[in-house]
Automatic annotation (TrEMBL):
InterPro entries: Pectin_lyas_fold. This is Pectate lyase superfamily protein domain-containing protein. Gene3D superfamilies: Single-stranded right-handed beta-helix, Pectin lyase-like.
Length: 181
């Protein structure tokens, strides 16, 4: 089995303007102030490696969302970060969330939601102007002590939605469902 390589990103902004792949054998470690900035050339960053960063640390910036919002289908946007990251969770702060109760954090929330299967909301008040919908199997959203999610006041209909599928058999459980709410 191969050894994991750790690449360290000290304080500074690192521009990515071409397609990049982070292989499963690499972990990127972000020091405070280390930021990968996605450039205007709409590169795709295929992330299959790990990340070491704090919950409240911003590590990604720039052109993270590369399409208009799509209410239909499994993915609401085209994201710059794709792949199967080897992470336990993604934090919206990694993607620039303010968590101050007044700034619209919807872009950061969506990026964190779609980067891996688990999104952790650390203690903060997150505002969103677009519904956050859990659309994939085995996707988890975890609120840590004192985390709140609220509407921006715009008429978005719902702040959080869970798309379920009917049971696969007459006696079976739904294919997708919520538990421990």
């Amino acid at each position: 089995m191969g050894r994991t390589r750790i690449w360290s990103f000290p304080r500074g902004t690192y521009l990515i303007n071409a397609n990049v792949t982070v292989p499963p054998t690499c972990t990127l470690e972000f020091e405070n102030g280390g930021l990968l900035n996605v450039g205007s050339a709409n590169p795709t960053i295929t992330w299959n490696g790990g990340i070491k960063a704090g919950l409240f640390q911003r590590i990604f910036g720039g052109n993270l969302i590369q399409s208009a919002y799509n209410r239909i289908g499994d993915t609401p946007y085209t994201f710059a970060l794709q792949g199967s990251p080897k992470i336990d969770y993604a934090s919206p702060f990694w993607f620039g969330a303010a968590g101050d109760g007044s700034t619209d954090d919807q872009a950061a929330l969506h990026c964190a939601q779609w980067f891996g299967n688990n999104m952790v909301l650390p203690r903060a008040t997150y505002v969103t102007s677009v519904s956050l919908i859990l659309r994939r199997d085995h996707q988890f959203l975890r609120f840590l002590g004192g985390a709140f999610l609220k509407s921006s006041g715009a008429s978005i209909g719902q702040v959080l939605g869970i798309r379920g599928d009917p049971p696969l058999t007459a006696a079976g459980e739904p294919a997708r469902y919520a538990k421990e709410l």
